[in-house]
Fold this protein.
Amino acid sequence: MGLAIIYSRASVGIDAPQVTVEVHIGPGMPGFHLVGLAETSVKESKDRVRSAILNSKFLFPSRKITVNLAPADLPKDGGRFDLPIAIGILIASEQLPTDRINDTEMLGELALSGELRAVNGVIAAAMASNKHQRALFPQRQCQ
């Protein structure tokens, strides 16, 4: 068990500032903790992420999971961080490889089934990702 760092983008007006999603899985009382000034809609993502991981035939770790959305002073709302949180959990629990994760940014809401749902502000996120020479996933939303 360990640490995973995934890059994403917030939506603030017409801007898409970078958000670093840090996921740590370690010893301690099993739980899922979300920090970094997350609004209620982001805190609700814990249940969506857990169900999506399980319904996608992965294991949800029975460990202490801490997710930090940085920078903390940037407001975050909506389900756009579901996908990067889920991918971070799967990488930190060694269920997915870390190949090419540093040159990729992710955003997307997850259904309980694990299906990916579109989010708002994708064009601004794609432009910002491109400016930083990173690919945005999922690209289908950008078309």
